[in-house]
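Lab meeting prep.
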Amino acid sequence: MKQEKSNINFDSLTEEQLKLKLDELRKLIDEVDNELKKNLSARVNLIEAVAEIKKYLGSSTFDAKREEEIFNRISDKLEGNKLHYIQNVFERIIDESRSLQRKILGRK
């Protein structure tokens, strides 16, 4: 689902129409949230599998090169608010990924 910035002409809409538009946008956000939840759940499953392999290999939970690759990939063609927002979200995702791996590996 691709959504671009809203180009709402506020002067041409009534307060009631704006409230309906707000509800419509919130429903779209809910749909995006559901997709995020599904994708993040799949990511957790993959992280668990990666952690099990790292446990077997005795590898570290931190891989600077891999994290740099992730940030470069997700930052590509983003700028402004989108870049800042998405980078911050991915920083948190990666922090939580490392935390889950440490838990599985029995490390602090």
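Slide two material, second protein:
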Amino acid sequence: MPILSELVGNNHPIGAAAPLDRDSDLLDVYPDAQLALRLWNVYVRSVDPVLKILHIPTIQSAVVATILDARSAQPSMVALTFAIYYAAVTALCHHDCDEPVDLSWEKPVLLKNYQTALDRLLVTPDFMKRPDVTGLQALAIYVTCSRAMNLAGQYGSLTVS
């Protein structure tokens, strides 16, 4: 998985990345409300206890509002929800889960879609010049989970069977 600096240098030069266009294909990969709420639940239950970047009681209403109407949300809030979905999908286990989540696509496809959306959202000129707290939270979640995915791929599963 490329790191953000590689993306800025290679695929999305600063100033050339398109800002979030309400009709863009980014929102085409946005999950439906039912899946988004399930992924939010996975994030709150499995990711947040380990990765304390968000204050759940404060951000929950904004996340739910974005889930219900992503087209009218601020780009940084859309980026945060994509980061939440990315983190939740990375945290999903296919066996041993308390509550299995029925994904609309295969896990690698969802990860790639969410990664592509985050790459585009987080390198827009507006974000690079004037990042806000929500965008920085999205970036922190994304980078941390990307690193975890890379380590898992390099070293395999660290769980005992």
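Talking points for slide two:
The chain has one domain: 21-154.
Residues 18 and 128 are 12 Å apart (CA to CA).
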